[in-house]
Write a structure and sequence with these properties.
There is one protein chain. The protein folds into 3 domains: 231 residues, no CATH class; 192 residues, Rossmann fold (3-Layer(aba) Sandwich); 89 residues, no CATH class. Strands 1-4-5-6-7-8 form a 6-stranded mixed beta sheet, sandwiched between helices. Strands 13-12-14-15-11-16 form a 6-stranded parallel beta sheet, with helices on both faces. Strands 2-3 form a two-stranded antiparallel ribbon. A hairpin with a 3-residue loop joins strand 7 and strand 8. The chain starts with 7 loop residues before the first helix and ends in an 11-residue tail after the last helix. The chain is globular. With 554 residues, it is α/β, with parallel strands linked by helices. It is built from 21 helices and 16 strands.
């Protein structure tokens, strides 16, 4: 029997059974007519905390603090969600009697996932300015941590996503989402998508794992993967990021990239993470650096770049994610920071490992080898765009100055065979790869489309060029003239280059008028020139046309 096209209720029944029978979640029931449904079910929270040995007075205080964070009407949903996440992740510091020491109340047991109470309820009616009813809500220890909207196979999964986006508005049940970490939407034909609070529809993500397994519905398969108790707890603890006003969850390649890197860190081995450009390597660095520092009290992470704008970008990404990172102002400052226990996170240009006025580089290297810098802690070096610095003197200096550091290279640039070989020699094996075609397939990046154009180049007066050539070569014999003609055989193209450039500019403007992706302002075009001078000439030609209003030139 073909199940595609079945009614939504049948899909929901199957998914509820999946949570009960395969994921071993407790079924709380159909809450359509239940009163006072909440994202903090106090009876369930109290039951869990009592079982963990907390006193009634301490539980009451912890619940009060959790409710206050979740229902602060003076703050945005983002802020409330961030504050609740902090309480879930780090616990609530409370004391019953003044003068006593603070006692942490851990709402979730992160180290032992199976010791938490996982449950689901369906048709959860939530009363707000306008009542709404999510299809399925996932609870951990009585706290709503995920919402799942299901649609029949003939209805777009986008409808489920938009439904959750609308529900997050203040005019509906926005406060219910203050504890929610994952928002799922799915149907039987398109599978499963996931996002978080504030995630626009187009940024909802697909999970991809064991793609060769087609034994069951994609929706069921990926719910089993992502909502597995251990996996879900890990995702919430290690892979949730509040990035300057935007809550972010990991793409599947970021998750598996970090997981692979964690194993290398445990073995104190370096390697290369090769993720194609535009796929979020900086976020991978944040997830990994945070994990290293939390799991190794002696660890310190230094992110190395070779361009000032990249150095500033790394500092901004970490700072926006709430991670304190130090950017040394000079080479001397870098050495001073490394020789003390804090800060644990640094970012620096590789040039700050250099030194001026070195007469004999090899002698200088030998001196450093005998007396390396006494850096404090276990150093992990993240070398961004590692293919550019791996074979230079500065990289060699860095390795000699910090001989005990573990180096991990990050890049997404296609490597020549020589660069690839050198990268592997310097950093070690590939830790994880995510290729360009995978990024395009997953809709993480746009495809790069190349269209060759042949612009005929002609000269209007070959006789004048011959006359000019004869005048300039007066006094040379025929052999010398022949050799010069071979050398300057491209004179025709050089003299007609302006015609070629004007023709090319005209073609670009024509494309921006007629090609759907360009005319709709949803795509970009890249014009590559042979030099900065030529690029400036193109810019001037574009500026002199009457169509520049159609094109934003950078």
């Amino acid at each position: 029997m073909n199940d595609v096209g079945q009614i939504e209720r049948a899909t929901q029944n199957r998914v509820v059974s999946l949570f009960k029978d395969e994921l071993n979640y407790k079924y709380l029931g159909n809450w359509e007519d239940r009163l006072n449904n909440s994202n903090i079910e106090e009876e369930l929270v109290t039951c869990y905390l009592t079982g963990r040995g907390y006193s009634p007075a301490l539980i009451s205080k912890a619940l009060h603090k959790l409710r206050a964070a979740a229902n602060n009407h003076n703050e945005s949903l983002y802020t409330n969600n961030k504050n609740v996440y902090g309480l879930l992740r780090y616990g609530i510091q409370e004391k019953v009697i003044a003068g006593e020491n603070f006692e942490p109340v851990q709402l979730i047991d992160w180290k032992n996932p199976e010791k938490n109470d996982f449950a689901i309820a369906e048709e959860v009616t939530v009363h707000g300015y306008r009542d709404k009813r999510p299809d399925i809500v996932l609870y951990v220890n009585g706290i709503a941590i995920a919402v799942l909207e299901l649609k029949r196979s003939t209805v777009s999964i986008g409808d489920g996503i938009r439904q959750s986006i609308v529900n997050q508005q203040k005019e509906f049940i926005g406060s219910f989402f203050s504890t929610v970490q994952f928002i799922f939407a799915g149907n039987d034909t398109e599978g499963l998508r996931y996002g978080s609070i504030g995630t626009p529809e187009k940024y909802f993500l697909k999970w991809k794992e064991d793609i060769e397994d087609t034994s069951r519905m994609q929706l069921d398969k990926y719910l089993l993967k992502m909502c597995n108790k251990k996996r879900l707890i890990e995702l919430i603890y290690d892979f949730v990021l509040f990035d300057g006003g935007i809550k972010k969850l990991p793409r599947v390649h970021q998750y598996f990239g970090v997981k692979a890197a964690q194993e290398h860190v445990k073995r104190r081995e370096g390697g290369i993470i090769w993720h194609t450009q535009g796929s979020g390597k900086s976020i991978v660095m944040v997830f990994l650096a945070k994990w290293i520092c939390e799991n190794n009290p002696n660890a310190r992470v230094v992110i190395i770049t070779d361009r000032d704008e990249l150095d500033k970008q790394i500092e901004r990404v970490f700072s926006d994610a709430g991670e304190s990172i130090k950017r040394p102002s000079s080479s001397h400052d870098l050495m001073a920071q490394l020789s003390q226990a804090t800060p644990r996170l640094l970012c620096s240009l590789i040039y700050k490992f250099g030194k001026k006025d070195i007469d004999d580089f090899e002698v200088f290297i030998k001196g450093l080898e005998s007396q390396p810098i006494q850096a404090v802690g276990e150093l992990f070096l993240f070398v961004d765009e590692c293919h550019r610095t791996q074979s230079g003197k500065l990289h060699r200096l860095m390795k000699v100055m910090l001989p005990g550091a573990i180096s991990m290279g990050f890049t997404g640039t296609p490597l020549l065979k020589k660069d690839k070989r050198t990268s592997l020699e310097v950093f070690g094996e590939y830790i994880h790869t995510y290729k360009f075609n995978e990024g395009v397939e997953d809709e993480v990046i746009l495809d790069l489309i190349y269209e060759a154009r042949d612009i005929d180049q002609k000269i209007s007066s070959p006789e004048r060029i011959d006359a000019w050539f004869d005048m300039k070569t007066r006094g040379l014999n025929e052999f010398q003239k022949s050799e010069l003609k071979k050398k300057w055989g491209t004179m025709q193209k050089v003299l007609s280059s302006r015609f070629r450039m004007e023709k090319l500019v005209s073609d670009v403007i024509f494309d921006f008028n007629v090609k759907p992706r360009l005319s709709s302002e949803r795509g970009n075009a890249l014009l590559v020139s042979s030099s900065i001078f030529e690029a400036c000439r193109y810019f001037e030609l574009f500026q002199n046309t009457d169509k520049t209003r159609l094109i934003r030139i950078q």
